[in-house]
Amino acid sequence: MERALIEQQRTRLLSLKGHTDELTTLMDGFTSSSWRVRKTALEIALERFSPEDIIKPLIDLLYIEDNAGARNTAIEALVRIGKEAVPYLEEAFQTENRDVRKFIIDVLGSIGGKETLGVLLKGLKDPDQNVKASAVEYLGRLGEKTVVEELIKIIKGDDLWTAYPAIEAVSRLGDKEAIPYLVESLKRRPLTEPAIRALARFADPSTLRHIVPFLKDSRRSIQEETLKAIEAFYHSGVEEDLIARTLIEEFSDEAFSLILAHLDSKRNEVRKAAIFLLGILKEPRSVEPLLELSEEEELVERVKRSLIHISKAHPEILPGILSKVRPEQRRIIADVLSELKDRRYYPVLMKLLDDRDGHVIRNAAKGLGSIGDRESAERLFELFSHPYPDVQIAAVEALSELGKFIKEEELINKLHDSNERVRKNSAILAGRLLSSTALKELGFLLKDPSEEVRTASALAICWICQRQEHPECLRYIRIALNDESPRIRAKVVSNLEGLSSETALETALIMTSDANEHVRAAAVRVLGSFKSQKSRDRLIELLRDENGLVVTRAIESLSRFDDELAMKAIAEMVSSKDAEIRRTALLSLSGFRDAEPCISPFLHHSDWATRLAAVQSLAAIRSKEATLLLEDALEKETDPLVKEAIEGALGV
Predict the structure, then answer these.
(1) What pLDDT, in 10s, does the model give residues 520-568?
(2) Taking every pair of C-alpha atoms in the chain, what is the biggest distance, in angstroms?
(3) Which residues contact 24 (CB under 8 A, 6 or more apart)?
(4) Is the dihedral of CA 201, 163, 101, 52 positive or negative?
(5) In which band, very low, low, confident or very high, does the pLDDT at 229 lie, cut at 50, 70 and 90?
(6) pTM above 0.85, yes or no
(7) What is the pLDDT of residues 391-424, one digit of tens each?
(8) How far apart are alpha carbons 89 and 118 in whole angstroms?
(9) Domain 499-561 matches domain 570-652 at the CATH topology level
(10) How far apart (Å, rounded) are the C-alpha atoms in residues 349 and 218?
(11) What are the respective helix, strand and coil percentages of the chain, to the nearest 5?
């Protein structure tokens, strides 16, 4: 629809005075294909017409099958009219059109209040499932005491067709008065499943004994619902001992086999519930089947939690099978033993450091970080030369926790080890421990032939100097910033922010002239954290950098300055031929006042991604002018992704 025609229709609507003879024109506005016309019609209807004049015509619009826009606008109008519309909607609910009945339930549910209760309760008995489901949902939200009483009557009644959704509704209301009737409903075969779900929502400990027996129900679906319900009780705060005791009292030894049978369920939520309950039972026989499931990625965390439960009751069980299981399962066992942080497992974890599997060694090292001592620290140091980086990282992390067992001279000696892996990991550890004593040796390593060692040493120096003042800090950092490796220079620049502001600013300014674009980009990011004229002016200069990454970073950093010069500099970049620079500039303008004129031309750009950036920027501004620009753009936009973004910004 042409813009001129849309404006003509809107002008006509705006001229209406609220007379009944103007209703036809008003309702034509509701059926327009333009959302702007429909929105105008909606506002005029509510501002200038009396509710009794427009309610019935609005209800008539609900019957239009091929115009969702008209229906949705009519629904919004009826909701905004509110309780005055309820008697009309109650009368209209008698229609045979199930879609209209569904719309009426939606309107009444959105209006809320006691006045809507009668129709919503009728909705529970509606022959159409969609109407009934909506009635249940809105009754659950209503929260009226009288609703609970009415729902209980339905639950107690003979009409199972309405009792089912009534159980669902009463559970959402959360009134404990319903609990005895839900327990009774467990005995009515068609209502067992919704009653179990409802009782799980309440999670009243006294009802657990009524639910547990259904683990042995002949229907698989009921067994599965029971499993999930019992787990829900735990997550709602019911103690695991009560759950385990109830299971054992009801089934004795059979509880294990009843739950075990569901490990092969096709439904993941059922398998997860079964895994959880096996852990709650703390049954040693569960370990083997649980380990089999541990190789499935989506179940591994749940298996670990259950194995932890079992191990707390039977600490000997996992160490006893380590030599009998596959490497993949040994990894899980090592991980579980580590998480337990139990000194009883110290000898086992120490032995696992000699395992052939790197994952097992890594997990054992993690555990020793929590319960280790001087002896384990010595063993962990040996892992610094391990060929697998993950093992080295775990050893460094563990030793970081065991700092009190590490001697300064020992660490310094390792910084001079002939093995470069040992030197690298010792440097990282020195940084983690903030060892200023090691600063001189770390400075020496800045000349190491290994780039990995120099990188580790440079980072360690940065970490130490960020926390402690030392006269040699600046000298060592400057040495690192002159390293031949741009990777090292970039990493050091990225860590400048933690230093004193004057040192960091001056150093970052120097590094913006580095020959490598990644180093310059890192320096540009650091400059953005300093709100000084010097940093702003340098960032503006860097908008002319030959590298696109540096330019986009400069734009992003400039957006943190709330001044006219920064905005003007960014605004000039929206015309860049580089699409990424252009989009970054558009998005960055959203933080400035009065940026709308700079952004608006790009709502009509040939590149859809540029238009999207303009939309996102205006959406972030959220001014009246931005809204008008987006409304105009919506009429012309053809790309579905951009159109969706505009609609989201406008809430249509």
Answers:
(1) 999 999 999 888 899 999 999 999 999 999 999 999 999 999 889 999 9
(2) 97
(3) none
(4) negative
(5) very high
(6) no
(7) 999 999 999 999 999 999 999 999 999 999 999 9
(8) 11
(9) yes
(10) 46
(11) 80, 0, 20
The Cα 108–Cα 93 span in angstroms is 11
| Cβ neighbours of residue 481 closer than 8 Å, sequence gap 6 or more | 489, 492, 493, 507, 510, 511
Please name the residue that has the structure tokens 């130490």: 464
Backbone angles phi, psi at 350, to 5 degrees: -60, -40
Location of structure tokens 């787990």: 231
CA pair distance 566, 290, nearest whole angstrom? 60
Residue whose token pair is 């000039």: 572
Architecture of the domain whose range is 499-561: Alpha Horseshoe (1.25)
CATH 3.20.20.140 assigned to domain 570-652? The reply is no
Question: What whole-number distance in Å separates Cα of residue 296 and Cα of residue 107?
Answer: 46
| Phi/psi of residue 464, nearest 5 degrees | -65, -45
Task: Say how far apart CA 396 and CA 393 lie, in whole Å.
Answer: 5
What is the domain partition of the chain in residue ranges? 499-561, 570-652
Burial class of residue 546 in the structure, from the number of CB atoms within 10 Å of its CB (0-12 exposed, 13-18 middle, 19+ buried): exposed
Residue listed under structure tokens 């540009």: 524
Give, in order, the Cα–Cα distances in Å from 236 to each of 223, 308, 503: 20, 20, 53
Whether the CB-CB separation of 70 and 38 falls below 8 Å is answered with yes
Q: How far is CA 428 from the centre of its chain?
A: 32
